[in-house]
Amino acid sequence: MNPAKPEIGSTVRDETTGDLGRVMGHEGPYVQLRPLAGGREWDADPARVEPAGRTELLSAHVAVANERSRKAPRG
User: Fold this and answer.
1) What is the pLDDT of residues 35-59, one digit of tens each?
2) pTM
């Protein structure tokens, strides 16, 4: 658990949900996170977020790229 607020733009894991998110801001006592593939932000307890490891970050980016390629129009 990390008591410091993570830097805006960094990627962290929300230990409460297990999800990775990009830090979009800080609102009151919360860190605002957005899924790497985009979507609705959620509030996380800064004490329950950890910086994403290199392996899990790479895996998440590959998953996002794969999802986008499945949704791309076929020509």
Assistant:
1) 988 899 999 999 999 999 999 988 8
2) 0.80
Burial code (b: 16+ CB inside 10 Å, e: under 16) for 21-60 equals bbbeeeeeeebbbeebeeeeebebebeebeebeeeebeeb
What 8-state DSSP symbol labels residue 72? Answer: S
As a whole number of angstroms, the distance between CA 13 and CA 20 comes to: 4
Right CATH for 11-71 from 2.20.25, 1.25.40, 2.30.30, 1.10.287: 2.30.30
